[in-house]
Amino acid sequence: MQTALLIEQLLNGLQFGVMLFLMAAGLTLIFGVMGLINLAHGSLYMIGAFACAGVAAATGSFWLGLLASLAAAAAAGAIVEMTIIRRLYGRDHLDQVLATFALILIFSEGTAWLFGSFPLYLDIPPLLQGAVELPGGVRYPIYRLAIIGVGIAAAFGLYLLIARTRLGMRIRAGESDREMIGALGVDIRSLYTVVFALGAALAGLAGAMVGALQSVQVGMGEPVLILAFVIIVIGGIGSIKGAFVGAILVGVTDTMGRILLPALLTAMIGPAKAAGIGAAIASMLIYIVMALILAFRPQGLFAARG
Amino acid sequence: MAEPVLDIRRLSKSFGALKATDDVSLDLRAGEIHALIGPNGAGKTTLIQQISGALKPSSGSIRFLGEDVSALDVAERARRGLARTFQISSLTPEFSALRNVMLAVQARQGSSFRFFRDVMTDASLTEPAIAALSRVGLGDRVRTPAAELSHGERRQLEIAIALALRPKAFLLDEPMAGMGPEGSRALTVLLDGLRAEAPILLIEHDMDAVFALADRISVIVYGRIIASGTAAEIRADSAVRVAYLGEPG
Amino acid sequence: MSRETLLNAGLALLLLVLPLAATALGEPFYVSLATRMAILALAGVGLNLALGFGGLISFGHAAFFGIGGYAAGILAGHALNAEPLLSWPFEFSGSDQMHVVWLVAALASALAALLIGAISLRTSGVYFIMITLAFAQMFYYFAISWPAYGGEDGLSIAIRNGFPGLNTALPMDFFLICYVLLMLALVLSWRIRDSRFGAALQAARQNDVRVAALGIEPFRTRLAAFILSGMITGVAGALYADLNRFVSPSMISWQMSGELIVLIILGGAGRLFGPVVGAMLFVLLEFLLGGLTERWQLFLGVILLGVVLFARGGVIGLLVGRARHG
Predict the structure, then answer these.
(1) Which residues of chain A have pLDDT under 70?
(2) Which ranges does the record mark as transmembrane (chain A) (predicted)?
């Protein structure tokens, strides 16, 4: 197998990974600060994608669409937090799961009502079309490189936000002691809304960027949501660092597994059987990785809390 | 002399820089009540946690009935006959008092993998459970859900559960806490007779009860045992007076 | 007799009378509606063991439902084509008999539940929810990418599997099979709830530290419940495939897992007949609202949200109040 293909797939894996990180970061932040498991996080991803596709189609500008995706997802997040999610913080996880499952149904069906059942398509902005030649002679799409750049920038920005700002200090306080932070005179209610909207915006951003690579359709968020869960389980709930490491691990493992496993099996049992078996095993690979990590570290790689 | 029922040797437990248990050795002999006293935060409950298996010590060993149980988990130590009560009542709140104790009876019988017979019609469960409840004075609260019992009654239920396990040793973590004078007196009488059935390691703040009951007393301060002896010896110990009773020596 | 027992008896009777009346009125469609109710209720009875009694919030029970479904589809396919499925340790070329299918469905689900449970039950809380969801998704993707049995397109069952002495092609015969299995599972579930094992399981839900301190291993108790739970849901999956004469990866989807939880909650979690009420209500809503609009799940979402926020005990809780334990 050529090195060029490997490098290309490695970059694809990285791109997939940073996109997953944007999802996982919000989920893990919301769990870390508010103790809430949010199944509807995939809906926010979908809302971002639809907002971007809708606004881009209406205005002809991808960039306005991208802004709209952030705004729409953050607004949807804030509204849902203030009307419904807020009532769930003190409830047990079953209630949180059910209520946010109900939200998935409402968001999905509502979006299908508004936009119809057919997928929308989003074009890559002219600025980022085409490919560049990387050292080693690999030609790689600029847009995917841009996603990797945005993802890493978002990770770095999140790190700065949490480590260096007043908001970050409050978030950290909220993670370590929920009662304490109230005693410090911080307005918990608005802090929670802000954290939830921040997580939603990250999900919306991921949805919008991926929208230009795939089709934009109802139900696009949940498979990504479940992968984000796998990442959080691997990384440790509540840990942003764990989410980053887990996301890259999952993104690269999944992408590389899908080309390496069939190739490996072809060498062992011949191409006829290898394609099917290889694809089937590759589709299970990340879950097997998750199971292995759990077997040795039930709390994940960077457990922040139990 | 026969080997002690419970033999703790050089046990230490650190949380970061804090030494919650610092080189503690103590034993529990057949037929005795050994009281463990000390100020709040001295590390008494941490010690119980390690003996029962809920916390893993940093170093040291725990021998029970002649065998090293240091590597065994909570359930396995319980099955070998180590019964523990909790400082803060730990019950199954939806179950009635009776069913809380019945669960202990079935645990003792090692029969939790039976899938068919209704427990409420099973006299081999209900009778010992009712007997244990009567013994702690809860005979008239059999059908009350644990969540609806008063604080003192929940403490009594804790004891009934421990009794129903018919253990080889009791670890009682502040059984009198919040019981009221009458309840404490009744429990003192009960524990006094109980030591003949199985020895008791008793953590207790009620000094009247401790000095009335204990064959031996160990005093723990900042995770260390600073004195150990009979009630009279402890009363006379100047280190204890300074460190614990707060009197000048 | 308690009010709950009366309500349960009434529900069992209602579910039986519904298709009988439909047949008498010459409306066979309603028989298949009632069959769907019975099968989903059976799947829910399985999940209720883990979720209701054990407090194990499995968001991955569709895995067992799907495994049962594929057991029915694969065995029937092999039997039809007389292709050997196994040549070792014994020759086995599928079966078109339901009792064989159920056995295989139960065993395969048990094995899957053992694997999933052994890993996921080492954790608790949100970890458990996310891990069970993830493992079900693993089976989902496996079913999609494994080409031998239809992959994404699913697998048709040419002729509904048979049962000795009955003509399963008749809607009423097939309904009765499903109904009797549901009743058997309810009896089993009732006995388990009141048994020593049930006591340990329910106690572990309320306070696992206490249970361990008594000398009962919460892990082993939960694993046994999880396996039993998976087996029952697996058998329901086999029936579901036979009802539709079709099985596809969608039976393993996260939506399916979610719906199973939803129908238990609608009915009343931890209540014996909670899954029965829930399944009847769910299928009825799907039928009534689905007839009005394609987007009926929007209303399901709103109803569910209302139940979670305002009516915790489900329908049974509303009708007869909170559960009491001896």
Answers:
(1) 1, 177-186, 304-306
(2) 16-37, 44-64, 70-89, 101-122, 142-162, 190-213, 225-253, 274-296
| CB-CB contact of B95 with B103 (8 Å) | yes
Q: Which residue of A has its CA nearest to C256?
A: A101
Q: Kindly indicate the confidence band of residue C174, based on its pLDDT and cuts at 50, 70 and 90.
A: very high
> Chains with 3 or more CB pairs closer than 8 angstroms to A?
C
Distance (Å, rounded) from C-alpha C166 to C-alpha C242? 14
Residue A302 lies in a domain: no
CA distance C305 to A210: 30
Q: Are the beta carbons of A279 and C142 separated by less than 8 Å?
A: no
A91-116: burial string, b at 16+ Cβ within 10 Å, e else? bebbbbbbbbbbbbbbbbbbbbeebe
Residue B143 DSSP one-character state = T
In a domain, A110, yes or no: yes
Residues in chain A with CB shorter than 8 Å from the CB of C147 are 276, 279-280
Answer whether A109 sits within 8 Å of C304, measured CB to CB: no
State the ipTM, two decimals.
0.91
Structure tokens at C231: 């087996």
Q: For chain A, what is the domain count?
A: 1
Show the tokens assigned to B106: 């079935």
- Nearest by Cα to B222 from B239, B237, B200: B239
Cβ neighbours of C159 (radius 10 Å): 13
pLDDT in the model for residue A279: 83
Indicate the pairing of strand B59-64 with strand B6-15: antiparallel
User: Does A303 map to a domain?
Assistant: no
At A185, which CATH number?
Answer: 1.10.3470
Give the rounded distance of the alpha carbon of B41 from its chain centre. Answer: 18
User: What chains are in contact with B, requiring at least 3 Cβ pairs below 8 Å?
Assistant: C
Domain boundaries, chain B: 1-81+167-249, 93-166
Q: For residues C66 and A27, what is the distance between their CA atoms, to the nearest angstrom?
A: 28
Burial (CB count within 10 angstroms: exposed 0-12, middle 13-18, buried 19+), residue C225: buried
Between positions 58 and 117 of A, the ones with CB within 8 A of C are 84, 87, 93-95, 97-99, 101-106, 108-110, 112-113
Question: What's the pLDDT score for residue A305?
Answer: 45
DSSP H helical segments within chain C, as ranges?
3-24, 28-48, 62-81, 98-120, 125-145, 171-194, 196-206, 208-214, 218-244, 254-267, 274-292, 296-310, 314-320
Residues of B in contact with C194 (CB under 8 A): 118-120
Q: Which domain holds residue A87?
A: 3-296
C122 CA: distance to closest CA in chain B (Å): 14
Q: Which fold has domain C3-320?
A: ABC transporter involved in vitamin B12 uptake, BtuC (1.10.3470)
| Chains A and B contact (Cβ–Cβ under 8 Å for 3 or more pairs) | no
Q: How far apart are CA A291 and CA B86, in angstroms?
A: 35
* Global pTM value: 0.93
Under an 8 A CB cutoff, do C137 and A287 touch? Answer: yes
Q: Provide the shortest C-alpha distance from residue C122 to chain A (in Å).
A: 7
Domain assignment present for residue A159? The answer is yes
Burial class (CB in 10 A: 0-12, 13-18, 19+), C326: middle
Scanning every residue of chain C, which has its alpha carbon at the shortest distance from the alpha carbon of B90?
A: C210
pLDDT of residue C3: 86
Q: Are residues B75 and C224, on separate chains, in Cβ contact within 8 Å?
A: no
